[in-house]
Amino acid sequence: MNSKNILFSIALCLTTCSIIEAQDTKVIAHRGFWNTPDAAQNSIASLVKADSINCYGSEFDVWLTSDKKLVVNHDPSYQGVKMETSTFKACTSLLLNNGEHLPSLQEYVDKAKKLKTNLILELKAHSTPEQESEAVKQIISMIKKAGLEKRTQYISFSINAVKEFIRQSPKGTPVFYLEANLTPKELKDMGCAGPDYHISAFYKHPEWIKECHELGLKVNVWTVNDKKDMRWLIDQKVDFITTNEPIELMKILKAKTD
Predict the structure, then answer these.
(1) pTM of the predicted model over 0.90
(2) How many domains does the chain have?
(3) What is the arithmetic mean of pLDDT over 122-128?
(4) What CATH number has the domain bearing residue 50?
């Protein structure tokens, strides 16, 4: 995509913001809006760019380092440095593809305070429950101090982390489970806000979407990049779609209102 097309697409998203916000289905940028110049996955720039096109939320991933500090990265390792077993300094000294250093969660939160997009914070599954519990404790404290409690949702593949978020967070905090091995009823009983499952789970169990809504749960779906899948999920009235192609999803949502 050349720069002229990117500018046009961003302008289109901005001018249709009120229409998009009125939609039942909200757009979440997967690892931020990184599929654009000068950004990288989970970078500060990707967070800012997700906000600039009025995404409902920007998803990102968090690890606890060996010295019990929080950093933002998707994979267990980056450039050979393992997040869990390396120091905060070693992790944040690494450079991303766009030239930024690998960010700390504190940097992410500080930037988010100046933006409007919601934070969709994934705590990665760690080696021990103790690491996850410590990470949850620090995350909740940091989000509270930043005044971002009403703009933050928590997600995880780790059922222990999900339970810890539910236990430690203020009542009503949205916590979603990522591993598609629980039914809507089981999620409800656990105290989850709903499933955040891969799209394949909903093709296998389309009835789960209706069941979730009947139980008062929200439905998030990842990582949806195909236009046909986007249209199907919008027709199914899912609440959130997480995508690497937020501009394309916004265009489809706009077309639904025309």
Answers:
(1) yes
(2) 1
(3) 99
(4) 3.20.20.190
